[in-house]
Design goal:
The structure holds two protein chains of two kinds. Chain A is of the alpha+beta class. Chain A has helices at residues 2-9, 12-47, 147-181, 189-213, 245-261, 274-305, 310-322, 327-350, 365-389, 393-401, 406-435, 438-443, 470-480, 485-520; strands spanning 55-60, 66-79, 82-90, 98-103, 107-112, 117-121, 126-135, 141-143, 216-220, 226-230, 234-238, 264-265, 270-271. In chain B, the strands form two sheets. A six-stranded mixed sheet of chain B has the order 6-7-8-3-9-10, sandwiched between helices. In chain B, strands 2-1-4-5 form a four-stranded antiparallel sheet, with helices on one face. In chain B, a hairpin with a 2-residue loop joins β1 and β2. Classes of the chains: A alpha+beta, B alpha/beta. At the A-B interface, α10 and α11 of A face α2, β6, α3 and α6 of B.
Chain lengths: 523, 268
């Protein structure tokens, strides 16, 4: 009907112009949508790393009290006709920075505070304050300019404590355990000697620790409140208002580095995302290892071995339909089949003595990878079949004519020729698996995992462990962010990272594919 | 009879077994319900070039594909009758098809080198035979490429991709690949139809040289080519063997009306 209408209204040239125009318009809209998504995430996520100036803010609270604080303006937005700021600040009531909404009309003044710094502690807490002096153990304050020298001294003490704990104390402890296991009596002289040594060294450690803790930094908040922070809890001190652009950039780059390499702190609202990044990449990697051979074998069977019957067509249709099943269904399937079914049976067979505590029948990175492999299997099968169909018939004939059996032809000729198609499937599978969240939460991804799935302990790769995942971290953080602007920007940063990870994985696969194409499709 | 050649023609009807490369007995072949070959009996002489000519769809390609059982790739293929190579009936169920194909090599219409190096292309069949010794492979590659008159052109770039070769070189590479297995019989299915005239000439010269090494059967649409390269020629029409004799006789004094019509261009 529409085409008839168009025919009546427009000449053929006009119709052509209309369709080209419409096509260009929709392509443009699509491109714009994509670019704006990426821009938003890049701007908000990138902004997370950019050091914000510490300001001295004076404002009058709704209760009518005049207050002066050191704060950073995290974000601002328009609410009806007033401008509202998320202010991240320290005050006497709670010296560690927290945030609050400040309306523009309350604000008296806000100017950069050159002497104030953003003081980050190792546990993820932050204080916005002015460092005043350094306190030595004898309570003698010295100039703040000597801070670095004193911190070095504290680091030496810290190192000594670690040495004593790791080498001496744990060694004595081991020997005591050995005595226990040999059931040496409590009164044995060896035991007494060890206990004595333990007490001696332990006392020394305690002394060192109290010495370490007595090195402190005195800081002053904007309202004059003073407090001290033990030097060994300090993580970083940034005078963000003093920094030039280049210095800010350096700080930002350093923060990116920490974001990528450190563990989350403060319930995923601060710190880095390394375990989540690692978990995501490991899960995708395992999934690829599982899905590629299975998908390829299935496709080879369907395309090369199975007779062309109704049954084969039905199987093909089923495979295509599997790609459209909602991912949460796969999550439930993974939980029910792999974890409770397969894992539970393995427990009943091999780990009977630890039941009812499950060993295998519990969510973990392997089950997650397996579930994602099932989820992405149809994609790989369809793409591989496409690749197999494109292998020229005369090459297969050439291989058979040289005495190759079917299996040899598949292995030496058909699979290499189809490898670009296989890679296409793997690329699509990676893109899908890296972004999936819902099924993962059922089969092994958690908000916080105490250990990485890979460590120095035998067997090094702990496939039964739960893992952290960037998508799950974002999902989790999105709930905090309703009240916390700071962690919201961390979630944007995590989104940005997830995009970058998917992008890098895809680029790697695309590069590999173009290599294979150059090799096998140049004819 | 006066001949232009320096050797006597063999009597194809009463060829002795030791001079026979392939003996076909009452071979009929169908693809599904379509009868492609009907009751063909013939003897192909050893170390000679035999050409199969006929219209498109007359069954000549199917017939040579029967000699190394390439028709088996089509699941609807059925046949009756026997084909003997030596004392063996190769149509027998227990015949090892892979082994047969190493003894009966085949070259197709379009050059089909594998997307590998020249060296690996020639080695393909040998490696499938389980030959892994580098030295042995090197020697085999060299001699196969020499046999196929390609050695001089490619000896410096054996490990380059076969895709960079010209069409004629690729076709010679494919011949070398088949020769590397030292086949008793070489089947050429319109080997020059995708090549230019000069390259065709090279391949024809090559065929003439190769016949001392193995029996050659060539399917061709080009009657001049059949006359030039073959010692014997078989004319097929609608799945039947119409006439089979030495090429001289067939092209100068055909016995059958259909043969005469075909070679004088009345149809085909």
């Amino acid at each position: 009907m529409i085409s008839n209408l168009l025919k009546r209204l427009l000449s053929s040239g006009q119709r052509q112009a209309f369709f080209i125009g419409a096509g260009a318009f929709f392509t443009g809209v699509l491109l714009l949508a994509m670019v704006s998504i990426v821009m938003l995430i890049a701007a908000r996520g990138g902004g997370y790393f950019w050091p914000k100036e510490v300001q001295r803010v004076e404002y009058i609270s709704p209760q009518g009290q005049a207050r002066v604080v050191f704060g950073q303006i995290e974000s601002e937005y328009q609410q009806e006709d007033t401008r509202v700021y998320w202010l991240y600040y320290s005050d006497a009531a709670s010296p560690f920075a927290h945030q609050s909404l400040i309306e523009e009309s309350w604000m008296q003044s806000a100017r950069p505070a050159k002497n104030a710094a953003r003081i980050a502690l190792k546990d993820g807490r932050v204080m916005l304050a002015e460092p005043v002096s350094v306190m030595l153990p004898d309570d003698a304050p010295v100039s703040i300019l000597r801070l670095d020298a004193v911190r070095d001294k504290v680091a030496t003490i810290e190192q000594r404590i670690a040495e004593l704990r790791e080498n001496v104390l744990s060694d004595i402890h081991l020997q005591l355990t050995e005595l226990d296991s040999r059931q040496v009596s409590d009164a044995a002289p060896a035991r007494a000697r060890l206990n004595q040594a333990f007490d001696k060294w332990h006392a020394q450690v305690l002394a060192l620790e109290s010495q370490r803790d007595s090195y402190r930094m005195q800081v002053r908040l904007a309202d004059g409140y003073e407090t001290t922070l033990p030097l060994n809890t300090l993580y970083s001190i940034d005078y963000t208002s003093r920094l030039s652009f280049a210095e800010k950039l350096t700080v930002a780059v350093k923060r990116v580095g920490r974001f990528l390499s450190e563990s989350p702190k403060q319930a995923n609202t601060a710190g880095g995302v390394f375990p989540a990044l690692f978990g995501t990449v490991l899960m995708v990697f395992l999934m690829t290892i599982i899905v590629a051979p299975f998908g390829v074998m299935a496709a080879v069977y369907l395309n090369e071995y199975a007779a062309d019957t109704t049954l084969t067509s039905v199987i093909r249709i089923c495979v295509s339909n599997m790609a459209g099943v909602p991912s949460i269904v796969y999550g439930v399937f993974g939980l029910g089949f792999f974890i409770y079914g397969v894992g539970g049976s393995l427990d009943a067979l091999f780990f009977r003595d630890t039941l009812p505590a499950p060993t295998m029948g519990t969510p973990g990175v392997f089950w997650a990878a397996l579930t994602m492999a099932i989820l992405t299997l149809p994609v790989v099968i369809v793409a591989t079949e496409e690749g197999l169909r494109n292998v020229p018939q005369d090459l297969k004939a050439g291989s058979y004519a040289l005495g190759a059996t079917k299996a040899e032809t598949v292995w030496h000729t058909i699979l290499p020729m189809a490898s670009p198609g296989i890679m296409t499937g793997v690329i699509l599978a990676i893109a899908r698996a890296a972004g999936e969240v819902a099924p993962l939460m059922l089969v092994g991804a958690v908000k916080f995992a105490p250990n990485l799935p890979i460590d120095g302990e035998f067997p090094y790769l702990h496939l039964e462990r739960q893992f952290m995942h960037l998508g799950v971290l974002i999902y989790d953080g999105a709930f905090h962010s309703q009240t916390d602007a700071k962690s919201a920007s961390m979630m944007f940063a995590a989104c940005l990272l997830l995009l970058v990870v998917v992008f890098i994985l895809n680029i790697l696969a695309v590069l590999l594919r173009s290599r294979l194409r150059r090799r096998y499709e140049k004819r | 009879m006066l001949t232009l050649f320096d050797h006597e023609y063999l009597d194809l009807d009463n060829l002795s077994d030791d001079l026979t490369a392939i003996r076909v007995e009452n071979l009929s072949l169908q693809f599904g319900t379509k009868h492609v070959l009907e009751n063909i009996s013939m003897r192909v002489p050893k170390n000679r070039v035999t050409a199969f000519i006929g219209q498109s769809g007359c069954g000549k390609s199917t017939l040579i594909s029967a000699f190394n059982r390439m028709n088996d790739l089509n699941p609807h293929c059925r046949y009756q009758g026997q084909i003997f190579i030596g004392q063996r009936d190769i149509t027998h169920k227990k015949q090892n098809v892979s082994e047969l194909r190493t003894q009966v090599g085949m070259v197709f219409q379009r050059p089909n080198p594998f997307p590998m190096s020249i060296y690996d292309n020639v080695c393909y069949g040998l490696k499938l035979q389980g030959i892994k010794v580098r030295r042995q492979l090197d020697d085999a590659v060299e001699s196969a490429l020499k046999d196929a008159a390609l050695w001089k052109e490619v000896k410096d770039r054996l490990f380059d991709s076969a895709a960079i070769l010209s069409g004629g070189q690729q076709q010679r590479l494919v011949i070398a690949r088949a020769l590397a297995l030292k086949p008793d019989i070489l089947l050429l299915d319109e080997p020059t139809s995708a090549l230019d005239p000069l390259t065709t000439l090279y391949i024809e010269e090559l065929i003439a040289e190769l016949k001392s090494r193995c029996t050659i059967i060539i399917v061709t649409h080009n009657m001049q080519q059949a006359a030039r390269v073959s010692d014997y020629t078989a004319f097929l029409h609608q799945g039947r063997l119409i006439e089979y004799s030495d090429s001289d006789t067939l092209f100068t004094t055909p016995q059958q009306k259909q043969t005469e019509d075909y070679i004088t261009g009345r149809y085909g």
